[in-house]
Write a structure and sequence with these properties.
Blueprint (H helix, E strand, L loop, with lengths): L2 H4 L3 E3 L2 H6 L7 E8 L5 H10 L9 E7 L4 E6 L8 E2 L10 H12 L11 E6 L8 E8 L5 H11 L1 E2 L18 H5 L2 H31 L19 E9 H11 L3 H23 L21 E8 L6 H10 L11 E8 L8 H15 L3 H16 L1 H13 L3 E6 L6 E3 L2 E11 L5 E8 L2 E9 L6 H21 L10
Parallel strand pairs: 5-6, 10-12, 12-15
Antiparallel strand pairs: 1-4, 2-7, 2-14, 3-4, 6-7, 8-13, 9-16, 10-11, 13-14, 15-16
Family: In the N-terminal section; belongs to the long-chain O-acyltransferase family.
Catalytic activity: a long chain fatty alcohol + a fatty acyl-CoA = a long-chain alcohol wax ester + CoA; an acyl-CoA + a 1,2-diacyl-sn-glycerol = a triacyl-sn-glycerol + CoA
Subcellular location: Cell membrane; Endoplasmic reticulum membrane
């Protein structure tokens, strides 16, 4: 890289990056990459230097311009990979590698990154556990980019395992044909357009009111997964489970829903299952109970999730790869460009588990006919412009603090890939520094779907149980689909 001129250049940080640097909203991403082989450190560094380090955000320092106002800028610098790649000397035959890897990841949540170097580092653990032959943990400051940005740049660095010259394939949304325009009269078409417009305006108004109420006063019920103040500073525990993406698609196709609908329904069912077990032992006031109930869940529990929506247009991996090669960002393709929608979850035990999926679809369909997430994004930019990033961070913190958890689903490559010179087994992203005690991420990769949980150690001392409840809830839903005969002929293949 030509650092002589780049080192003198500074670029103002985006509103999203400024927000992530506020002391009350200082988020950091922990992305665990499981590999099929042990990591050759020299090859791994060579591949990092060949592509990722060329990315402007991964080769820039965060410079404080005005601490009181909360303004920052990016300044290009030379990257010393020896300061970014940490590879501890480990015993490959250790007794409990799963526990060691989980403890190591948890330990990374106890400190933030130094601003004396670009805001990322990589920890290479050459030890075999249940899911992979080695694990690499990327620790990345959230100001560098959001989850969609980061998974996109990772894929732009990767190549298909079956074809080392080709970029990975990522699923894209299919465009439905405009049957209304082709098959119906003008009057019906106008009626549908007007009705859709009215629905969008109504849903947007409701979402904006709900969002403002949550920021100001509307709090979730205190439960075994609802954190209090200061949770963003406490250590987190990270666990994951891997299920079959083909099984998820089977449910999706059988019920004519989206994968988002399926994983949201599974989340609601799994949390209901976990809280039910909790309330079998203690009531809502934490008092131990002796008389068991068939339905121990209290009525009218308010549990809501902050759901992350991507607002940027879909970028081609070829463009991202070219962006890194030219070492220059393309406007609109990078940064923290996401909207937040508050999703109410109904916590209840259902005799028919398919109710969770139907309810999730109805809720997501309603959110798709709303501009609430875009309005929230514009409002946050306005608050930041008028009052600075500290005030904007405080407002954002209140929204997350008054809800219970955060939910996201990120689409990964459709086939197995080679990333930084080694074949990848799975991807499990999470985050810390969050004003919530629970974060649930779903990440697809080839024929797998990874459920990744980040949980506060004190609030949720048994996150593996919650992970197991999510998996069991999905199995119940799949079994119900099969039992009810909803599988079509093509779904069985």
């Amino acid at each position: 890289m030509k650092m002589s001129s780049q080192e003198e250049e500074e670029e103002p940080a985006s509103p999203g990056a400024r927000l992530m640097q506020a002391s009350s909203f200082n988020l950091c991403i922990l992305a665990v990459m499981g590999y099929m082989t042990t990591i050759d450190i020299d090859l791994f560094k060579k591949e990092l230097n060949r592509n990722l380090v060329k990315h402007p955000r991964f080769s820039s320092l965060m410079i404080v311009k005005n601490k009181k106002r909360g303004t920052f800028s990016w300044k290009r610098t030379k990257v010393d990979l020896d300061k970014h790649v940490i590879a501890p000397d480990l015993d490959p035959d250790m007794e409990n590698p799963d526990e060691f890897v989980d403890d190591y990841i948890s330990g990374l949540s106890k400190s933030h990154l130094s601003q004396e170097k670009p805001l990322w580092e990589v920890h290479v653990l050459n030890v075999k556990n249940s899911d992979a032959n080695s694990n690499v943990i990327f620790k990345i400051d959230h100001s560098i980019g959001d989850g969609i940005s980061l998974i996109s740049v990772v894929l732009a660095c990767a190549r298909k395992e079956s074809d080392p010259q080709s970029l990975p394939t990522v699923a894209t949304k299919e465009r439905k044909s405009d049957n209304i325009a082709n098959n119906n009269g003008l009057i019906k078409r106008l009626f549908v357009l007007v009705w859709t417009f009215l629905l969008v305006m109504f849903n947007t108004l409701i979402d904006c009111i709900l969002c403002l109420a949550t920021m100001l006063f509307l709090k979730d019920t205190k439960t075994a997964i609802k954190a209090g103040r200061g949770v963003e500073l406490s250590p987190k525990r990270y666990v994951r489970r891997i299920i079959s993406l083909d099984d998820v698609k089977l449910v999706k196709n059988a019920m004519n829903v989206s994968i988002n609908d399926v994983v949201l329904g599974v989340t609601e069912a799994g949390i209901s299952r976990y809280l039910s077990t909790t309330y079998e032992k203690h009531n809502e006031n934490g008092v131990e109970i002796t008389k068991k109930s068939t339905n121990p869940l209290p009525k009218n529990i308010r549990v809501r999730s902050a759901c992350i929506f991507n607002l940027r247009p879909c970028a081609k991996l070829e463009d991202l790869a070219e962006m890194m090669e030219k070492e220059k960002l393309i406007k609109g393709m990078w940064g923290n460009i996401v909207g937040i929608v508050v999703l109410p979850l109904t916590i209840a035990l259902r005799d028919d588990p398919l109710i969770y999926i139907r309810r999730a679809k109805a809720m997501m369909d309603q959110k798709k006919l709303s501009l609430g997430h875009k309005c929230g994004f514009m409002l946050m930019k306005l608050i930041m412009f008028l009052f600075g990033s500290k005030v904007a961070a405080g407002v954002s913190t209140q929204l997350f603090r008054n809800t219970t958890l955060t939910f996201s689903n990120v689409v990964g490559p459709q086939e197995e890939i080679n990333l930084f010179g080694h074949p990848l087994a799975y991807i499990a992203p999470s985050v810390f520094g969050f004003p919530q005690g629970l974060v649930i991420h779903y990440q697809s990769y080839a024929d797998k779907l990874v459920i990744a949980i980040g949980a506060d150690e004190e609030l949720i001392p048994n996150p593996r149980q919650l992970c197991d409840d999510l998996v069991m809830s999905f199995r119940n839903i799949k079994d119900a689909v099969i039992k009810n005969g909803l599988i079509k002929g093509s779904d069985c293949c």
